[in-house]
Amino acid sequence: MRTLLIAGNWKMNAGPTEAKELADGMVAARQGKDDSSDILICPPFISIPAVAESFSGSHLKVGAQNVHTEDNGAFTGETSTSMLNDTGCEYVIVGHSERREYFHEDDALIAQKAKKVLTDDLKVIVCVGEKLEDRKSGNHENIVRTQVKAVLDHVDANNADNFVIAYEPVWAIGTGETATPEQAQEMHQFIRSLLADAWGEDEAEKIRILYGGSMKPANAEELLSQTDVDGGLIGGASLKAESFSDIIDIAESI
Ligand SMILES: O=C(CO)COP(=O)(O)O
C-alpha cells in the first residue's frame, strides 16, 4: 500500500511574509489530525525558510520547485541541493511543464537534475505530461514514455523509495479543465508499466504517481480514488489553506 502524497506547488506566489501566514494557516488546519498521507508544500526558494519555520514540529514537509545540477559556483540566480538540504527541504520538483516551456529545460537536463537530487539524499518529484495537441492526435503515451524513460535511463532502481512521478497534462494546468478519472488512471497505469519495465514489478508498485492539473476539493475524490493515483500535485488550490486542507481530508477518507 502506497502512502498518498498531497503536495502543493505554490509556483511564483507568496513571498516570505505571505508564505508564513499561509503555512501557519495550514498547520492550524491540520492540527490534531492524525494524517496518514504525506503532506508537502513547495514554495518559491526565498520563502522556503519561512515555511520550514512554520512547519517545524508539525507533520507538514517543505520542498523546492527546482534546483541546479552543480553544488556551487558561478551560476548566477541558481540554487543547489546542499542549500536546499540546509533549509530542511525534503523533496524537489524537477521538470515541471512551466520549466520545460518557459526555461527551455529538456529531458536530458531534467534527468541530470533528478539524479543530482537523489544523489544528495533528497526525494525527487519528476513531472511529465503531454500538451493538448498530443492528446488530440493520440500521441500522449509516446510523449510521456519519452519523458519518463529519459529519467529512468539515468536513475537506479535502488532510488525507488525517493522517487515520485507527477503526471500533469499540460492542458489541465491552471485551466480549470481536469483529466477525467479514467484518463488519469489510464496514464498512471501506463507510467507504472514503464517503471516495471525498467525496475521490475516490485519496485514499480512502491512508486508514487501523483496527478496534477486543476485538482481541487470538488474533483479530488474521484481522482484520488483511482488505483494508480497516489496523490496530487496541486497549484491554485494549494494557495488557500482551507481548500488544500479539504483535499487532505478527502485523501484521508479514501
Ligand atoms: O502545475 C500544477 C502543479 O504543479 C497544477 O496547477 P493547477 O492546480 O493550478 O492546475
TrEMBL record:
Pathway: Carbohydrate biosynthesis; gluconeogenesis; Carbohydrate degradation; glycolysis; D-glyceraldehyde 3-phosphate from glycerone phosphate: step 1/1. It is found in: Cytoplasm. The keyword 4Fe-4S does not apply. One of its GO terms (molecular function) is triose-phosphate isomerase activity. CDD domains: TIM. Homodimer. It catalyses: D-glyceraldehyde 3-phosphate = dihydroxyacetone phosphate. Involved in the gluconeogenesis. Catalyzes stereospecifically the conversion of dihydroxyacetone phosphate (DHAP) to D-glyceraldehyde-3-phosphate (G3P). Substrate binds at residues 9-11, 174, 214, 235-236. The lineage of its organism: Bacteria, Pseudomonadati, Balneolota, Balneolia, Balneolales. Signal peptide: none annotated. SUPFAM superfamilies: Triosephosphate isomerase (TIM) (SSF51351). It is an enzyme of class 5 (isomerase). HAMAP family: TIM_B (MF_00147_B). This is Triosephosphate isomerase. The gene is tpiA.
